[in-house]
Structure formats: C-alpha cells, structure tokens
Amino acid sequence: MVIISPSILSADFANLQRDIESVVKAGADWLHIDVMDGHFVPNITIGVPVTASIKKISPVPLDVHLMIENPQKYVKPFADAGADIITFHYEAVSNPKEVIDLIKSFGIKAGMSIKPDTSADVVFPFINDLDLVLVMTVEPGFGGQKFIEKCADKIPVIKEKAPEDLIIQVDGGINAQTARICTSYGANSLVAGNYIYKSDNIKSAIESLR
Ligand code: DX5
Ligand code: ZN
Questions:
Q1: Which structural domain range is residue 69 located in?
Q2: Which pLDDT belongs to residue 142?
Q3: What confidence tens digit (pLDDT) does each residue in 144-182 have?
Q4: Which residue CA neighbors atom 4 of ligand 1 most closely?
C-alpha cells in the first residue's frame, strides 16, 4: 500500500477548496502542505492560518512539510492548526531528537527530511524514533522540478535499517515513471504536485502512482 500525498503547492490558491476536493475525490490518502519561510528555502508559501482553514474542509490527514528555519518554534502552532504529520528538515535543526519528541508530544506523527546533498546515514540515529523519513529528490523550494535520480539511491539504504512500520516518503519530480523507481526501492509514500494537478485526469494520475 502506497500512501499518495498530493502537494497542494501546485493547486490554484484562489480555488484551494475546489482543488483539495478534486484530489480527495480522486483517492488522495493525505494532503501534503509545503510550508516555506524564505530563509531555509528561497520561496514563501503557506503558513498556520491557511493550514487551519484546510483542516476544516479536509477529510484526509494533513501532511505538513516544514521547509523552515527553527521548525521547533512552529511545531505547536501547526499541531494546533490540525497537522497530522509534521516533517522537519534535518539540516534546519541542531538536535533532531528534541524536535521529534516535541512533535510526538502532540500525539501526531513525526517526520524528518533530508535534502539531496545530505547523506542517508544521518537518519540512522533517529530511525526508531521517527514515524516517517522524507527523501527529497529535488532541492526543496519549488514544485515542478526534475527528479534527481541519484537521490533515490538513499531509499534502499534507509529501508534496510528501517523498522517495519517506518513510512519512507519521497518528494520532488514524482510521476508514473519515477514513482516506480521509488516504490521498487522500498518507498511507501509519494508526494506529487505538478504531475497530479497538471494532468487532465487526476484520478488516473493518482492511480498511476500506486
Ligand atoms: C518542493 C516541495 C514539493 C513539491 C513537489 O520543495 O517540497 O512537495 O511541491 O512538487 P512536484 O511534484 O511538482 O515536484
Ligand atoms: Zn514537500
């Protein structure tokens, strides 16, 4: 079973409810919310108030990807806004274990993400504490970029040491072809923005990823 988490970064923000309903109706398991602060990445996107509004209309879990500095400062606000999964970046913190414990203290799932140039090894000390590991296959910051194939090599490395129930998620440049590479390597959750939202048939796009 592969968890499909459409990234609403590729939605039309003026029609966010419509674009959330369309992916939910088409079988999305989660909604991926890309939070960017203009510091950790060179782009600014969605924050706490929008997340809280999405929570009111979403029947599926909110998968919040924090691409921000000092993520520990925003764990409580996003948890209060209704995040079901909070994923922070390894590169943005000095004590990952503290952030993982903080996220879990709200009774939600804790994820940690690594950028393309970060080694898979950094995950190992935390692999039994995490609910999810997010392998970035593009430089975080923008949707619609090309899949960096060598990043996918980290998936089997993580999978080999992962507990049975660890969610290994991949984000960036996912389409039907790159999804197959990732799932064959052991990924069990895929984020996709452009591939889903720019397709003529959202349902078949989501099905093609599974
Ligand atoms: C990139 C974001 C991704 C992005 C995915 O910084 O974390 O979630 O929106 O978009 P696509 O699938 O278009 O690469
Ligand atoms: Zn993301």
A1: 3-209
A2: 98
A3: 999 999 999 999 999 999 999 999 999 999 999 999 999
A4: 143
How many residues belong to the chain?
A: 210
- Counting ligand 1 atoms within 8 A of each CB, the residue from 112, 138, 189, 194 with the most, and so the one to mutate, is 138
Which distant-in-sequence residues (6+ apart) come within 8 Å of 11 by Cβ? 19, 20, 197
What total of structural domains would you count in the chain? Answer: 1
**Predicted local distance difference test score (pLDDT) of residue 87:** 99
CB 101 within 8 A of CB 95: no
Q: Residues in the chain with pLDDT < 70?
A: none
CA atoms of 3 and 61, how far apart (whole Å)? 11
CATH number of the domain within which 53 lies: 3.20.20.70
CA of 30 to the centre of ligand 2 (A): 12
